[in-house]
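In response to the reviewer comment on reproducibility (Comment 2.3), we provide here a single inverse folding case reported in full, input and output, so that an independent group could reproduce the run without further information from us. The structure tokens appear first.
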């Protein structure tokens, strides 16, 4: 048990540290890539939106890898890891679809950059709360409890209002001006679906690699919970830093 616990902690720290380094070291490439895709594909807008979403899913930001990889680690098998990823990104997609459908009513300058920091803090608090709840449940009930999909869904709804909310807003405004014939709701939907595809690829690589490395699901579940906890504190710190910078 002691060795298993030590391996949990090592895995959690290594994975959380790798994700934090990726977030802090990767430049914000999504918007320039989005502009390049839009300019190169022109009116092939569905493919453009989907491709931009895939880029988003592959990019390690504070509302993708820290959450989806941690939740996947806490699942018992690959199918549940896929479902956890689909649940989280499905909530993101729902919010982004609704927002892009109402884009004509949302003035960009009113909100941009005002509360990104607050979303980071709230999402970080949510991550810590979920990790703490399931740590307590595991101690009280035995076994290794994993977050249910309702909790993941609610978490996704909150995370949808992070910085990528404004990326979708800008895309929707751009598409509305350049191609008014294109259904605005499809901007958010295709972006979200593309993000799911990109994140799913990353999650599957991470999950399968860790399963083959550890060969003990219960250790991976505990490591995922600890990773969620560590990254929650990181997001709170990132939000506070963003607010004061």
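Designed residues, in position order:
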């Amino acid at each position: 048990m002691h060795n298993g616990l030590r391996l949990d902690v090592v895995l959690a720290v290594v994975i959380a540290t790798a994700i934090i380094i990726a977030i802090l070291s990767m430049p914000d490439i999504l918007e320039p890539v989005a502009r390049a895709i839009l300019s190169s594909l022109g009116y092939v807008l569905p493919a453009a939106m989907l491709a931009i979403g895939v880029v988003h899913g592959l990019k390690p930001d504070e509302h993708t890898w820290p959450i989806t990889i941690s939740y996947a680690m806490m699942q018992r098998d690959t199918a549940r890891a896929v479902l956890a990823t689909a649940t989280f990104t499905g909530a993101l997609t729902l919010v982004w679809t609704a927002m892009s459908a109402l884009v004509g009513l949302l003035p960009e300058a009113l909100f941009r950059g005002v509360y990104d920091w607050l979303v980071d803090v709230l999402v970080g608090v949510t991550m810590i709360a979920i990790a703490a709840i399931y740590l307590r449940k595991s101690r009280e009930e035995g076994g290794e409890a994993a977050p249910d999909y309702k909790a993941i869904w609610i978490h996704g709804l909150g995370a949808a209002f992070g910085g990528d909310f404004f990326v979708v807003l800008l895309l929707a405004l751009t598409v509305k001006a350049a191609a008014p014939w294109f259904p605005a709701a499809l901007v958010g939907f295709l972006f979200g679906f593309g993000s799911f595809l990109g994140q799913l690829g990353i999650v599957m690589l991470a999950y399968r690699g860790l399963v083959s490395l550890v060969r003990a699901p219960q250790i991976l579940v505990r490591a995922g919970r600890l990773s969620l906890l560590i990254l929650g504190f990181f997001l709170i710190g990132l939000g506070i830093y963003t607010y004061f910078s």
